[in-house]
Design a protein that fits this description.
The protein has 656 residues and is α+β, with helices and mostly antiparallel strands. The chain is 74% helix and 7% strand.
Length: 656
Amino acid sequence: MRGTAKTMLVCCLLLAMCFATAQTHVIDSLRNKMWVESNPAAKLQLLITLCEQHQSINKDSLYQYALLAQDLSQREKNKKNKALADLILINSYLRIGNTDSAMELTDAGLLTNTLNNPDSRDIYFKLTALKADCYGDASDYKNALSTLYRLVGEAEPLHDSLVLAKNMSTIGVINYNLDHVPDAFSWYFRGLSYITDDPRYNAAAAVLYINLAETYRWMQQTDSAEYYINKAIPRCRQIENLFFLANAARIQANIYKEKKQYDLAEKTMMECIQIRERTEGKLILSNEQLALAGIFMHSGKTDSAIAILTNALLKYDSTIKSDRQYQKKGNEADAMKIAYYQNLAKCYQLKGDAANYQQMLEKIIAAKDAFYEANSARAIAELQTKYETQKKESTIIKQKLAITQKNYLFYGLLIILSLLLALFWLLFKNYERRQAQKMKMAIEEEKRIAAESILDAEEQERRRIAADLHDNIGAYASAIHADVEKISDHGIEKNAIALQNLQQHSKEIINSLRDTIWVLNKDTITITGISDRIKTYISKLRPSYGGIMISVNEEIKNDMRISSRNALNIFRIVQEALHNALKHSGASIITVFIKSNTSIDIKIEDNGKGMNGETNHTEGNGLLNMKARAVEANMLLEIESQVGVGTALLLRLTTN
């Protein structure tokens, strides 16, 4: 008892030091009541109520609260209070990035807190939602959605509207992260349908408004984004949730930036950073700091952006040498450092500082190499640790089995049977050792072959990307070179057309790069995504061809996913077909038909003059490129043309 009391006293003193700074009025009030409460049971209840505000509590303080709650709940021996104390610890683990421990504790809690028991149902719903959060933190969106769909299905018959509103919001966020924007909106508005004026719904409503604002902002619908963020911020202030308030401020700052209200954007982002530091501690590298630098870049304060980014990197480099917490951050800190270098490169590019721009590019390459090398080292270390653990567990199991067998042996035959068992064991271990050696050699051979295959695939992909960039950008670069020579020879005044061509070719290079990066950033792309990209491309063409009506007709019953390579090939073929129709067909109407059910069918049809027999048999580079792309993507490509009626290009994809 003396040892426990001494430990509690030390914890209290440490916690008192951690909590010297204020968080919110609610947190400060509950915290003060808890520390003066002498009854352990009453102290635990106050602590549980306090940690319902876990999103607004400093993460280090929350962990100390969680340890104290564990100690008080174990002494009280109350199952429900023990489960509530575990919830605090799970939330703390998630805040500090210990996802594995959070998942393990969540699974243990779900074994004893079930849906069918009314007394533990609310804990069951919270634990299930936290399990989905664990999956989400690990980017395992498939299991996260599966868990949330099941939870929503369980809550609907019970008419638990608060649980439904909260978790439908989370489903919407995951769909947004997966680029399923229409589905995200659908889930957000379904969640809003359960919101009432009851104060219990304020937090759920705030989250839904924040998510809607961010999604509308990403869709560049600034007015809608501003409408919802203005509904969210008062709710966040009313419930005093610092996490929600920081997110809302970040979104509002980005809205101000897009509206070119840079002073408001800067002020709001500074408030966001201050709020974040109240819950996460002093942030040396952060997304918010990157966003502030972005605001400075857009507003023309490039030197201010450079100062923020450079000072943060210098402080990080000096801190990581002495601070073990930063040394443990690993992937997160390394990836953030790369982002800082990338933003610095943009700043120097904007300033026209070629030397520093080149230096930043070199640092980006070095940081990425170190990042990948560290990841490989971590993966090998984890595999080695897992192997050693399994080996020790196997040895322990065999030892226990041997002891159990000996207890059942007859004493008279103990020596003989022991010798036989030892002989058999030695023979078996020798056989097992040989088999393990063979297996190890086979696995190493498979790894070698797999590594070679990966290198070959990477080389082929690099060649394909280089060829694609060469085909699409090389021609424009040559045209730009020719235009520049004309201007140099004859002067700017006599080469207005060359200047226009130079501007157009520059835009085409940028658009081509964007199209290539669009597909490289994704493993797979939906037909809806390709269709949207085609629509965007057509919308950029229309102003240049006012006398031609260009339209897109969709019939997408099955939003199939295809590889990024096939997506790029389809997009390039459509681009070439549209270019040919606009330049050569003399058409007044061009229509793109996009169908997707059991197969993907795309048709580009015009009402132009068509192609005669001679033209039909003469294949230019454009048609040859389209056919080559179709063969590469395993697509069928046909051209139907009738003189005086028009031309139709048919494209069909039946497999990925």
